[in-house]
Amino acid sequence: MGMSISYKKLWKILIDKDLQKGELAEKAGISNYTLNKLKHGENVNVDTLAKICAVLGCGFDDIMEIISEEK
């Protein structure tokens, strides 16, 4: 059984806070490359997620969820 990460919650928070992805990257000190990895649901390190949470004032479970893929 595989698993994947969804960052849909992150994009919803950005909409709710009227914050652009580029603004988030700048405030959190993350690169456009990392932002692109998030857009495609790829793995990023925990430090990156912590920086995003610090900017948004939230926890990991507020910006991501683990999706189990049933075979």
Keywords:
single chain; 71 residues; alpha+beta; 434 Repressor (Amino-terminal Domain); two-stranded antiparallel ribbon; 5 helices; 2 strands; 56% helix; globular
Give Rg in angstroms.
12 Å
Which strand order do you get reading across the main beta sheet?
Answer: 1-2
CATH superfamily: lambda repressor-like DNA-binding domains
CATH topology tier name: 434 Repressor (Amino-terminal Domain)
Helix content: 55-70%
Number of helices: 5
Average pLDDT: 93
Low-confidence blocks of residues: none
Into which percentage range does the β-strand content fall?
A: 5-15%
Largest sheet: 2 strands, antiparallel
CATH architecture: Orthogonal Bundle
Number of strands: 2
Outline, from the CA principal axes?
Answer: globular
What is the level 1 CATH name? Answer: Mainly Alpha
One letter per element, helices H and strands E, the order comes to EHHHHHE
Count of the separate structural domains: 1
Q: Structural class, from secondary structure content? A: alpha+beta
Terminal Cα span: 6 Å
